[in-house]
Amino acid sequence: MKILLATQKPFAAAAVKGITDILEAAGHEVVKLEKYAEQQDLVAAVADAEALIIRSDKVTAEVLDAAPKLKIVVRAGAGYDNVDLEAATAHGVVVMNTPGQNSNAVAELALGLMIFMARTHFTPATGSELQGKRLGVQAYGNVGRLVGQKARALGMEISALDPFLTDEQIVAGGAAPVHSVEELYANSDYLSIHIPALPSTIKSIGYDLIMRMPKGATLVNTARKEVIDEEGLFRALSEREDLKYVTDVMPDNYDRLTKNFGYRVFATPKKMGAQTSEANVNAGLAAARQIVDFFATGNRKFQVNK
Questions:
Q1: Can you tell me the distance from the alpha carbon of 27 to that of 113, in angstroms, rounded to the nearest whole number?
Q2: Fewer beta carbons within 10 angstroms: which end of the chain, N or C?
């Protein structure tokens, strides 16, 4: 099978070698499209590809239309909103992600951002400590559980909301279960967001929820910028001088936020959650192994367009 590794932002060299070794050992041909300039480069490259590994690259209906032999797309990472799932299903293409491979990297970043904000961007100003603070985790999956575990080691009190888990599962993961998003926000000194960007979650976190947060609270977003109602965020920060917002997904209104709120707001220059050498390699190798298994046994365990 011809496997196209299409990465506008390439994997680390070690990951590329590992991916290639895994696929070639299974008898597949590997073709690389790295640092491409235009979306049309990807459209042209998929013409005879039977499998596709991507990172944040956009697999649109146009890409799928141009790939008559394509059977599987694997997004090396957890999020997959850069793939048109409806179009993939219409073309009979299986779409998978690689859940869990980036989780530790994202969780460590979330805790790092909390410390960064608690210490006022590491300026000489007097900061605060995380110990004894209440951390709410919105979505207690792979990343959320790790955030909770690491925060608990720092002496924080953990609560979590996840409609897909039972109370028993949340307790087993080391957190106190919460049964409404309003309750979670109202009782969290730090609130760590880990929900996907879906029609039901886009702009779901806005003025009303943020205003429920306790005095001095910090909202931490290492998920997707689309889940934040940015106008609602701006309004809440305007009315509550004690609130803070930190994220690794830069808001569209970031310049306006920093101009008005200074050290109370921070965003990394680019999406940083999975940007570690370990996560880079882990996700790439997982993608390669899933493709090998799919063609060898038909395994669709991580399919997301069922």
A1: 44
A2: C
Homologous superfamily, domain 103-267:
NAD(P)-binding Rossmann-like Domain (3.40.50.720)
CA-based nearest residue to 218, from 197, 241, 183, 246: 246
In this structure, what are the phi and psi dihedrals at residue 109, rounded to the nearest 5 degrees?
Answer: -65, -45
Which CATH entry fits the domain spanning 2-101+276-297: 3.40.1550.10, 3.40.50.2300, 3.30.300.180, 3.40.50.720?
Answer: 3.40.50.720
Per-residue CA distances from 271 to 222, 237, 245, 274 (Å): 8, 23, 16, 8
Its pTM stands at 0.85
For the stretch 197-246, pLDDT in tens is 889 999 999 999 999 999 999 999 999 999 999 999 999 999 999 999 99
